[in-house]
Amino acid sequence: MPMMTLIFRSLPRNGLLSLWLVLAVAVTSAASMATAQDSLTVYSGRSKQLVEPLVEKFQTETGIKVNVRFGGTAQLALALQQEGKRSQCDVFWAQDTGALEQLTSDKLFTKLPETIINQTLPAFRSPDQTWVATSARARGIAYSPTRVSPPDLPKSVFDLTDPRWKGRIGWSPANASFQAFVTGMRAKYGEEKTKAWLTGVRENGAKSYPRNSPILDAIAAGEIDIGILNHYYLHQVKKDRPDFPVEQTAFADGDLGNLVFVAGVGVLESSKKQELAQKFLAFLLKEDSQKYFTNNVSEYAVTATEPPEQSPVTKAAPEIKYSDLQDLEGTLKLLRQVGLQ
Questions:
Q1: How confident is the model at residue 36 (pLDDT cuts 50, 70, 90)?
Q2: What is the mean pLDDT of the chain?
Q3: Which residues, including other chains, have CB under 8 Å from residue 266's CB and lie 6 or more apart?
Q4: Is residue 255 a contact partner of residue 318, using CB atoms and an 8 Å limit?
Q5: The overall pTM is greater than 0.85
Q6: Phi, psi at residue 46, to the nearest 5°?
Q7: Is there a contact between 257 and 139 (Cβ–Cβ < 8 Å)?
Q8: 260-302 confidence digits (pLDDT tens)
Q9: For residue 117, what pLDDT is reported?
Q10: All domains of the chain, ordered by start, with CATH?
Q11: Phi first, then psi: what are they for 69, rounded to 5°?
Q12: CA–CA separation, 331 vs 99, rounded Å?
């Protein structure tokens, strides 16, 4: 007779009930532990609308559950600083590199393995190997092809102070990418030259818009002739409206007006799920995921498997360290000084 049957028969009724309760609790605890071990917590500064399709695909392919906390990149970075080693976050997905570099300085990220680092182009990874980019977006100049001939466009972002563009320019000083661009200008050219440029463009009658999209609408409506913004906005508009009367291009090669920004991910050193977190990063860099960013979001791929000509850093982008884009507070202070905040 099996040993378990002997045990059950020898137990009184209340003892048998107790044994069943113990077994039930043990099974439930084991299941809960397995569920916890096969799940990740991601803090995402990228929007839910953008991130969710990829997260769901990752869950389907791997069986790993992903709990995502959405919020502003700066807000989530501050939360991670406050939580420190007590944080339940495994992966931080940031909209920009300023926050990633700040958390690197705070030593909150673990060093990533070469197998992940080497999937990205060199320009799209942390020098400390603490984060990798997931996609990139470039700034440039949008224009009305009926009112401006391409050869007549400004060759440099610094040419926007030229009187011939008076009242014809659109920009968005409240936009996060514009502010990161100004931070890059401060880092590369200094406070005084940046202040002079901001003042000069403002005095040249540049019209301010709350976001990038209205700049395109203003060009199409004839309110302005040119505008500076991120490249993907026009791509998104033209998907639905291919005849939209606006075009875009880059400034001269190496000009700061072509500054490239990246969204990126890092793994928290405090995470108890390093292997699962690395699987998530590897998934974001695989070919299908990179095509999602290029086809659905109109951003640039960042992986070494993509043809070099598709990367904005191969030609037009200026040389600048992403670690130089941290000082947002200094930029906001300067924008207030010149009356743009």
A1: low
A2: 87
A3: 91, 92, 94, 100, 103, 104, 108, 109, 110, 112, 126, 130, 131
A4: yes
A5: no
A6: -85, 150
A7: yes
A8: 989 999 999 999 999 999 999 999 999 999 999 999 988 989 9
A9: 93
A10: 3-34 (no CATH), 35-136+261-311 (3.40.190.10), 138-259+327-337 (3.40.190.10)
A11: -105, 115
A12: 15
Q: How far is CA 292 from the centre of its chain?
A: 14
User: Could you give phi then psi for residue 190, rounded to 5 degrees?
Assistant: 95, 165
144: amino acid identity, one letter? S
What string of H, E and C letters represents the secondary structure of 6-52? HHHHHCCHHHHHHHHHHHHHHHHHHHHHHHHHCEEEEEECCCHHHHH
Check residue 167 and give left, alpha or beta (phi > 0: left; psi -120 to 50: alpha).
left
What's the CA gap between 280 and 65, in Å, rounded?
11
Tokens for 248?
């875009």
User: Phi and psi of 135, rounded to 5°?
Assistant: -165, 165
Helix (H) or strand (E) holding 187: helix 176-189
Structure tokens, 151: 């050869």
For residue 277, the model assigns a pLDDT of: 98
Give all strands (DSSP E) within the chain, no chain letters: 39-44, 65-70, 91-94, 132-143, 169-171, 207-208, 226-230, 247-249, 260-267
107-150 pLDDT, tens digit each: 999 999 999 999 998 888 898 999 999 999 999 999 999 999 99
Name the residue type at position 157: V
Q: Which two tokens stand for residue 213?
A: 């999209």
Q: Which token pair is 133?
A: 């980019």
